[in-house]
């Protein structure tokens, strides 16, 4: 059995380098396509720096003591940059993200629920791969192959999401998708080191992937409610940014919690399994909090409109004798 490595180190850091060229290319195309519009460069730098500093501080918290300067410094810098970003966006004539756009109640609620969903789903995707390689002993190629059902479940959920929104409405679809995702996270939370892939990992992975795929289009549709043609791209960009940033934040927090659990167990397999289970339970709590938020705050905003009643039939005329 290969030795257990603490999650959060090694290869996953390469994902940041892989996304960097894509971000640079998107920025260049944006500037070329809309050269007449003056870009909010300062707002982009402040917002990106705040997100990077926050995620970096959380990752450092998983590798060192939380009171060290390497942890406190980035987290404090993230707060300063966030405040500066809000001040700049309020005073800039053409802000990157107008604060009035974010104050719409539907977007506030949907982005709040999306933060919890992204944190749980991204952490689940990462932790399952760690569990496959460290506890079940799968190699890189084998782990990738047995992970394919997760992708298939995502496609199935996304395929049925539009129909569910039409029939049930966005609010009910989101509640159902979050509950399904929470059930998928909770299923493998009681896994033991000797459990097989088919019985310990696969059922929860399939249920979780279907729920996650069901929620993504519904979140996007709801977040774009009451947007015009001009700010529809902004609404889509905000949703995507929330998913990416909060997914990284959730992953960093749950990996840190798993590392703390590893210290309390002597056997490496038991330690990795208990850390995996703890992350799933925390992710389940995040999704249930999202369910409560959607159920209480979107009751009247995304309700499916009723069809108009048909006009009353004219009264029959009396025949004259």
Quick gist of this model?
Helix content is 72%, strand content 0%. The protein is mainly α and 321 residues long.
Walk me through the topology.
Blueprint: H1 14-33, H2 41-61, H3 69-91, H4 99-102, H5 105-134, H6 140-146, H7 148-168, H8 170-186, H9 197-200, H10 202-223, H11 232-263, H12 268-297
Helix pairs in contact: 2-3, 2-11, 5-10, 5-11, 5-12, 7-8, 7-10, 8-10, 8-12, 11-12
Full CATH superfamily name of the largest domain: MFS general substrate transporter like domains
CATH architect. name of the largest domain? Up-down Bundle
CATH topology of the largest domain: Growth Hormone, Chain: A
Give the beta-strand count: 0
* First-to-last CA distance: 101 Å
| Average predicted confidence as pLDDT | 76
Major sheet attributes: none
Radius of gyration: 23 Å
Weakly predicted, low-confidence segments: 1-18, 300-307
Helix and strand succession?
HHHHHHHHHHHH
Strand content: under 5%
CATH class descriptor name of the largest domain: Mainly Alpha
Shape: flat
The assigned structural class equals mainly alpha
Number of helical elements: 12
Helical content, roughly? over 70%
Protein name: MFS transporter
InterPro entries: MFS_trans_sf
Membrane topology: Multi-pass membrane protein
Main location: membrane
């Amino acid at each position: 059995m290969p030795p257990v490595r603490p999650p959060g180190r090694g290869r996953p850091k390469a994902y940041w380098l892989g996304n960097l060229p894509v971000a640079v290319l998107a920025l260049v195309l944006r500037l070329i396509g809309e050269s007449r519009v003056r870009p909010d460069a300062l707002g982009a730098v402040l917002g990106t720096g705040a997100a990077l500093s926050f995620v970096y501080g959380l990752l450092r918290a998983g590798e060192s003591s939380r009171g060290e300067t390497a942890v406190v410094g980035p987290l404090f810098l993230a707060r300063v940059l966030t405040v500066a970003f809000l001040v700049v966006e309020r005073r800039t004539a053409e802000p990157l993200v107008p604060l009035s756009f974010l104050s719409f109640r539907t977007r506030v609620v949907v982005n709040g629920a999306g933060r919890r969903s992204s944190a749980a789903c991204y952490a689940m995707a990462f932790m399952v791969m760690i569990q496959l390689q460290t506890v079940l002993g799968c190699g890189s190629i084998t782990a990738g192959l047995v992970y394919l059902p997760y992708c298939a479940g995502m496609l199935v959920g996304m395929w049925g999401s539009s129909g569910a929104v039409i029939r049930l409405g966005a609010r009910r679809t989101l509640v159902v998708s979050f509950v399904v995702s929470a059930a998928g996270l909770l299923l493998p939370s009681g896994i033991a080191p000797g459990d097989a892939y088919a019985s310990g990992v696969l059922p929860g992975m399939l249920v979780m992937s279907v729920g996650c795929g069901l929620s993504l289009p519904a979140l996007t549709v709801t977040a774009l409610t009451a947007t015009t043609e001009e700010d529809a791209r902004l609404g889509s960009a905000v949703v995507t940014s929330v998913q990416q940033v909060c997914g990284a934040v959730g992953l960093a927090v749950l990996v840190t919690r798993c590392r703390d659990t590893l210290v309390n167990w002597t056997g490496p397999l038991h330690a990795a399994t208990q850390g995996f289970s703890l992350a799933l339970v925390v992710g389940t709590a995040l999704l249930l909090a999202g369910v409560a938020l959607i159920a209480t705050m979107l009751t009247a905003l995304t309700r499916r409109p009723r069809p108009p009643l048909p006009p009353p039939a004219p009264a029959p005329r009396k025949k004259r004798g």
